[in-house]
Amino acid sequence: MLSERELESCYLGQFIPVHYHHNMLMDTNRMHAFRTAIDHVVKPGMKVLELGGGTGALSFFAAQRAEKVYCVDFNPDMVQEARRFLALNRGGHKVEVIHADAFEYLPPEPVDVVICEMIHVAMLREKQVEVIESFKRRYLQKFGGELPVFLPEAVLMAAQPLQQEYDFEGFHAPIVQFQQPGVPQSGTVEMAQPAVYSVTDFTQPNDASYDWQGKFVIDRDGTVSAIRFITKNILSVVQERATTIDWLNHYMALPLATPVAVQRGDVLQVRFAYRAGGSIPSLQAKLHASVLYRAALQPQVMAYA
């Protein structure tokens, strides 16, 4: 009988359609950020492992400097695709594409860098956290010593209340929406500043569960009808310049089951709980918002001359 994880892999990150991987190649922000970070982290002569290699693009970037790259993917279609593409590219011969489960695979030798891009907004759907935590335990048992450098090094996640329009030519449909960062969103009004709810440092042990309750001071009158989830991936820390190489996922706006009417100055309380790698509906089921304090009912501070 298949385990829960094996059943999930049929519809979560491990078996997303091939054409979705092709779309990722056309995401110029993603590709440029990873190429820049890999160029910074991977030094000549290094050994590199990529977990969840997809088309092999990130392994290709690593192969421009590394001595050897192990590229692992669980999807046989992607293994075939990666081998085909790498054969067309300079340095592709240094990449060994391996059909294996990233939860179980270990390289035959110690590696210097591990690339793992199983990243969905809010760490949902794909198994980034679980795969890396499993890898760290098994790697130390086999090789001991220090862990490799991970790319990304860390992930910051934040939540933000929105007033989101759900009218489609007169058809009302509160749906999950993915939004491109830095681009004005039609029908979207930001109702408060974002609040960070998790900082995941892959060099440290990480819990795969998130249980958060936070407060927001509302900026304007309206209705909070959705919560936006923001995921900023710190691909590499550039210490010599005191800066980072980052990649910002598309935003995800989840509709609230019960929208909340608010006024400027109200304090909104948002709470949610979910498991890294879980489904989007699992987060929606435990996503709630309510007004904790009404601005109109707050004590007024009187100024005396």
From TrEMBL:
<keyword id="KW-0808">Transferase</keyword>
<feature type="domain" description="Methyltransferase">
    <location>
        <begin position="48"/>
        <end position="137"/>
    </location>
</feature>
<dbReference type="InterPro" id="IPR029063">
    <property type="entry name" value="SAM-dependent_MTases_sf"/>
</dbReference>
<dbReference type="Pfam" id="PF13649">
    <property type="entry name" value="Methyltransf_25"/>
</dbReference>
<dbReference type="InterPro" id="IPR041698">
    <property type="entry name" value="Methyltransf_25"/>
</dbReference>
<dbReference type="GO" id="GO:0016274">
    <property type="term" value="F:protein-arginine N-methyltransferase activity"/>
</dbReference>
<protein>
    <submittedName>
        <fullName>Putative RNA methylase</fullName>
    </submittedName>
</protein>
<dbReference type="InterPro" id="IPR025799">
    <property type="entry name" value="Arg_MeTrfase"/>
</dbReference>
<dbReference type="GO" id="GO:0032259">
    <property type="term" value="P:methylation"/>
</dbReference>
<dbReference type="GO" id="GO:0042054">
    <property type="term" value="F:histone methyltransferase activity"/>
</dbReference>
<keyword id="KW-0489">Methyltransferase</keyword>
